[in-house]
């Protein structure tokens, strides 16, 4: 006779009441298995937690322990645009409104009204000066003051007098900054050997020079005059070093406003901006390490 499907089967495998077995094992066997895995995974968790705690002991709350992978410095600009391309028509406000909005929001944090607290800000001068050292990277001296940087120093690119930041007149501005790196002290170039001849006049003491020019040979002669606004047309040393968010919460990076006063219109132009210094490097794989390039197209039709 064929076996009766109801004589036990999988139900009996799950629980055998005659032998007191669960899935083929007795209660004592399951206890041993459970105990083994509890101990095993408990040991793994203990090793993991111990490793994390040991690593935390090597970290400093104020100074990054590992900076060997940081290739200083990054150079960035506002407005930030997709594919590094600024294209607009001087006859259409809608085409350049996103750029001016981004600029206005960015420079608003540099309003004088935000820097009035004497306990948080210092006047560090409007001329390039030496590093402003504020002690070691620890909490013994407490929170450090920050140097004031007024947006009015950006001249026609400040947005105070011209809310279009030059876009309406076909003379667009961009705002350039060096990215923050804790305790980094950029060093100005000691000679002109590594600087293009056309950029050499921008070299001066206590400032990291910024220089913009055509990226492509065919654009030579189409860029026109480039104006620089800020302190010394570059990044002055008195704003360095940066002590980090915990010790330097009010810190403001120095800015350079770059205005393209006479770009050839109705053509796509490639412009490259670079900073120069002894400890500033460039990398072909990183388009923002010490430099950036930008496509600009101004249409008037």
TrEMBL record:
Is Iron found in the keyword set? no
Q: Classify the main location.
A: membrane
Gene3D superfamilies hit by this protein: 1.20.5.170, Na, k-atpase alpha subunit
Superkingdom: Eukaryota
Give the matching Pfam families: Na_K-ATPase (PF00287)
Q: Which residues cross the membrane?
A: 35-59
Is Disulfide bond set as a keyword in this record? yes
Show the PROSITE patterns listed in the entry.
ATPASE_NA_K_BETA_1, ATPASE_NA_K_BETA_2
GO function terms (MF aspect) = ATPase activator activity
Q: Which GO terms describe its biological process?
A: intracellular potassium ion homeostasis; intracellular sodium ion homeostasis; potassium ion import across plasma membrane; sodium ion export across plasma membrane
Any one GO CC term of the record: sodium:potassium-exchanging ATPase complex
* Localization (cell): Cell membrane; Membrane
- What UniProt keywords are attached to this protein's entry? Cell membrane, Disulfide bond, Glycoprotein, Ion transport, Membrane, Potassium, Potassium transport, Signal-anchor, Sodium, Sodium transport, Sodium/potassium transport, Transmembrane, Transmembrane helix, Transport
Q: What's the protein's topology in the membrane?
A: Single-pass type II membrane protein
Question: What's this chain's function?
Answer: This is the non-catalytic component of the active enzyme, which catalyzes the hydrolysis of ATP coupled with the exchange of Na(+) and K(+) ions across the plasma membrane. The beta subunit regulates, through assembly of alpha/beta heterodimers, the number of sodium pumps transported to the plasma membrane.
Query: Self-association or partners: how does it assemble?
Result: The sodium/potassium-transporting ATPase is composed of a catalytic alpha subunit, an auxiliary non-catalytic beta subunit and an additional regulatory subunit.
Family in the record = Belongs to the X(+)/potassium ATPases subunit beta family.
Q: What is this protein called?
A: Sodium/potassium-transporting ATPase subunit beta
**What is the phylogenetic placement of the source species in the record?**
Eukaryota, Metazoa, Chordata, Craniata, Vertebrata
